[in-house]
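Appendix B. Extra example for self-study. Work through it before the problem class; the solution is given directly after the inputs so you can check yourself.
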Amino acid sequence: MHSKPTNIDRNYLVDYTLHLADSSLIMGHRLSEWTGHGPMLEQDIAISNIALDLIGQARNFYQYAADIENSKNTEKKVTEDDLAYLRDTFEFKNLLITELPNGDWAQTIGKMFFFSAWQFYFYQKLIYSSDKQVSAIAEKSLKEVTYHVKWSGDWVMRLGDGTEESRERMDAAIDYLWPYTGEMFVPAQFELNHEQQVTIDVRSIKKNWLDKVKGVLAEATLTVPEDAWMQSGSKKGVHTEHLGYILAEMQYMQRTYPGLEW
Amino acid sequence: MDPQKEEPLWEVFIRSRQGLEHKHAGSLHAADAQMAIENARDVYTRRMEGVSIWVVESKYIHSTNPDEAESFFEPANDKIYRHPTFYDLPDELKYM
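Solution. Structure tokens for the complete assembly:
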């Protein structure tokens, strides 16, 4: 059994839920790379918990995407596992920032903070989606993400307003990550069906996100990078060189031993 | 940098959803109170153990000396007149 053909006609809601599922899954996977390697016991546990929260969110969205797909197809049914483990890089729609390497603690914290803040304002609006299932997932996820923003934001402040070394590292992390934040607020085709009021307009949360980020960076005595050219493409399946390696590792077992169960 | 000074030890107390008092749950290291509370939340409330957290720097907890336990606590052992058990309760208060 090999991966499914990709020329299935999909409506926007499947793409939308996959975009949200993929982003949470890849970020969760990256954070889990710290498990057993955290700088302190409490931080190892904290970041592993956060990774689990994100994978839980991903599962909710994948299950819904599978339900929608299956309601349209009378032939082969897909499961959440098929969607997570059998799609290739050009089918993944996770935000680029989620697939970047962890680097040092500062880079991971920076990634987490930018991403969680985006999720926070995103889910806050998504609760009002006219699609009940999407709204329910958003509501549950918002509680988790509220803590993620607080936890990572506090670490940005500790590192920025810390020692000389920690500030240098946090500064370098922010400069490295900034070009990947622009695409968070550029809608894809599948996000633009606003008349149905299922999706939200990501352009409308940009200001909230910027205010939040600037506030935390200011308190961390860090500078906000100047706006420059922004990376993009993830929502069309165009990714950095990192995603291939992530999927190769993550999908290896299911692809080598199809149907494998614990 | 001395880790002991930068990241002191804190004792963690958690009150469960049904509980009235905060019970001692364990200890952890953190640089300040806010970090101690976040760490306690991450380490000691993963499985819904509680809905309220107290953290106290371990150095502020003072305890009795085990060597003094005998003179501190033994004398109270055989003074039944200190217990409120000699009242005749009317039937209406039978389940007090």
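Self-check: The interface with chain B takes residues 40-43, 45-46, 49, 147, 150-151, 154, 158 of chain A (CB under 8 Å). If your reasoning did not lead you there, revisit section 3.
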